[in-house]
Amino acid sequence: MLNQLLVKPAQRTLNTSHLYHPKPRFCLQLTTVAESPPPPEDATVAKLVLESDPKSLAETLSNYSFKWTPNLVDNVLKRLWNHGPKALQFFKHLDRHPTYIHSTSAFEHAIDIAARLREYNTAWALVGRMRGLRRGPTPKTFAILAERYATGGKAHRAVKVFLSMHEHGCHQDLNSFNTILDVLCKTKRVEMAYNLFKMFKGRFKCDSVSYNIMANGWCLIKRTPMALQVLKEMVERGITPTMVTYNTLLKGYFRCGQLNDAWEFFLEMKKRKCEIDVVTYTTMVHGFGVAGEVKRSKRVFDAMVKEGLVPSVATYNALIQVFCKKDSVQNALLVFEEMVGKGYVPNLTTYNVVIRGLCHSGEIEKGLEFMKRMEEHGCKPSVQTYNVVIRYYCDDGELEKGFELFEKMGNGTCLPNLDTYNILISAMFVRKKSEDLVVAGKLLIEMVGRGFLPRKFTFNRVLNGLVLTGNREFANDILRMQSRCGRILRNVKL
DNA sequence: TTAGGGTTAG
Fold first, then answer.
1. Which of A30, A266, A367, A476 is the most exposed place for a label (fewest CB within 10 A)?
2. What is the CA A173 to C1' B9 distance in angstroms?
3. pLDDT exceeds 90 at position A410
4. What is the top-level taxon of the source organism (predicted)?
């Protein structure tokens, strides 16, 4: 039934339902796709890891003659980035390999993944293991750990990581100090960073980078006066502000909606004969534009060119985004074509901005054309690209087209992430059909199987939906899965 | 992975 619902009957169809699944959990059909070249080896391995039951992973992989190299392992781990438990199972399997030894970078990937899953004990065990093998830890290892602690809401632990570096045989220097400051600032723990900064600025002989990091931190939490204070202090200590310092403050003004102050600051920079650079202009184009001042934004862009500065791809991206958001996609496309005409190579951001703009104005098919165009030009659509188009298809009631793209992701080289699943699951509630809710339940099972932890809200929503549509038994299955869910992450021990 | 400019919805 579901198959018929989600497919246009006249189309030639082919059942591929989740090629990387041991058994199809649900059958969605999609139109025939063109023959594509064989996937790279790391994609094949990633697919096998995703498909295999953890217990049979070793056996599965031994059926193939992969030649394990640091590069291959790194790429597999990168691909499995959104599938943490699976990635760690793979890492663990190779950790027992008779001849292959994990590289520093493989360890750091694994540590990053474990810490992202908040498996801090696992992460530290890996640090110990890499030390035992004399593969680290390196300053980068600690930067990763600190960042994961900070983004996991454990800023104090992040600071501790930095303070304990030397105990793990890793020297603390100005670079690592700047890194911890930046990690804290980027996670909005600016006060904490500032305290640390005040405490150690003498010991590590803080440089302009440290000051710039702090100024940016205050700007990120919209406390520009404090950023100015940092600038003042910097000058008092005889450290010359750089273009980064000025551009940071300029961006800070825009972030606070202080357009006039931003403009004044820019004039002041000019007056003082600052070497105004492409970043300054890009900040202005974006700042004025997203604040609704499209004409001003375009004037700045033109002024830049007139002054002989060459716009970067980022400058074009800013302008294109401004047109998409505050003007029209048609004008944005004109800028896009102008950019291409001048020999620029649009990047992932360019395409994502354009595709989002098109979808937003109801031109999803045209967005899809751009997706093809980017692929033809060697720019692989990212999971965000897919998510945008899938979302708009679903919003438009074109569920089958959304699923078609979802299938394409699974078959190809761009694995779905948590957002992808959430988008699709939400879409399953629109038609209020029993069959759709069963799909939602199956998606939920699939995402858990791949190591994503759905929010409680998602579980409850699907459960309620199933119960209301008379799928009580299936709801019970899901309920049992939910209770197992908490244990899934804990089961991955190294 | 020591700092600044372009992607994200409701």
1. A476
2. 41
3. no
4. Eukaryota
